[in-house]
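Incident log entry.

Two folding requests arrived from the same account within the same minute. Monitoring flagged them as a possible duplicate submission, but the sequences differ. Recording both here for audit purposes.

Request one:
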Amino acid sequence: TAAPAATGPRRSTRGRETQVVPGGGGGGTEGARGRARPDPRGSAGPGPASERLPRAFSKGFSSTFTGERRPKGDRIFEALGATDELSSAIGLAGEFSSEKGHTFVEQLHKVQCMLQDVGSNIATPLSSAREAHLKRTSFSEKPVLELEQWIDSYSEQLPPLRAFILPSGGKSSAALHFSRAVCRRAERCVVPLVQAGEADPNVAKYLNRLSDYLFVLARYAAMKEGKEEKIYVKPEP
């Protein structure tokens, strides 16, 4: 007969202080989107919940990769959250596109990997970064140039744009349009960081070109699937 499972207080991980750290990655720019790492000072144990929550959590603070403590509402964490949402939106678009057999799905996967590196750079504010941090989280112009090549390649295959297009054209296209909108928001979050000297300008450039890429790709997906793109029609007065 199997021994009964041990009982007793469960050690909760909720409420532990977190620090944003870049994850490992193979090839290219090292570093990935900031992950939450438990702080050993925040180990939970028996006792009332109010006693187990570390002060850093109750006061709404978190740490960057450089170890700097900032409020969770700081612009850096806003930008990290927007970048994470963008990667999730692109992942959804990639799944819809994969079901239709689109070959650009591999490009979308590469973009998601690059967004991990974007997050690493954002999580490493230049004002508090040391040389070791910068080596791990630098972001070059090479990915920006690659996006521009992809944009040119797809644009050459598309009919001229003669009207304002509404997000439409099938699930793949609509999801890519949604990703584009999220990308523009991520860019708006990153630009103030670049202007303040906290993030690499290439990160903002990448997001700017990425939104254009997603727009062109949405049109391309609709064309390949034979779906109609809905256009803006001015309502009659």
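Request two (distinct sequence, not a duplicate):
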Amino acid sequence: MAAPAVEATAATALRSVILRARKAAERVGRDPERVRVVAVSKTKPVSLIRQIYDAGHRCFGENYVQEFIDKAPQLPEDIEWHFVGHLQSNKAKTLLAGVPNLAMVHGVDGEKVANHLDRAVSSLGRHPLKVLVQVNTSGEASKSGVEPSSVVELARHVNRHCPNLVFSGLMTIGMPDYTSTPENFRTLTNCRAEVCKALGMSEDQFELSMGMSGDFEQAIEMGSTNVRVGSTIFGPRDYSKKST
């Protein structure tokens, strides 16, 4: 269980992040309501997530399937859960069955995982699932995601061949050196333009998931609609508790 002082600090940090996000949107003439702050709670205890929930926040993200399905049932059903990052195909149905209120998957990085998610949604009889295609904008071998040149092909596959999925946009994880992220963000916005043209989608309704604790304000200024903020809200990670 998180200590009361830690919980109070997290709630204060959340309010600061939301204010900073709003100001970043306003600086470039964007509607702040079009920006979603996903509080990424991986490795954090249920009690700390509940404190953020009690402070009024409803949008949370997790990265590890087992940890996710352990924690989600212990928390209110009106949470808007997001799965962030690489999802193994064989865990798609486990994730969806364990988190009925999963709102979006940030990280479809191939046709195989898209097909598994599509079949899982159908077999469970749940409403269509929003998904974002993950793009490897930094060219790092360690990063999941399709190459920018393959984005349209995967987006088209999800859109045409996965009737139980709602293709909603793109996501990326930039390089650890935050000075390089403007290039990563520009690459993703360029991919958005290509996908919208190919699929006849409006950029106004297109989701971009980019920006984390160190660069979320810049990401918002460059068009992000989802920023994934973890350590700035919850404090440093304890990866000894990581579950796959």
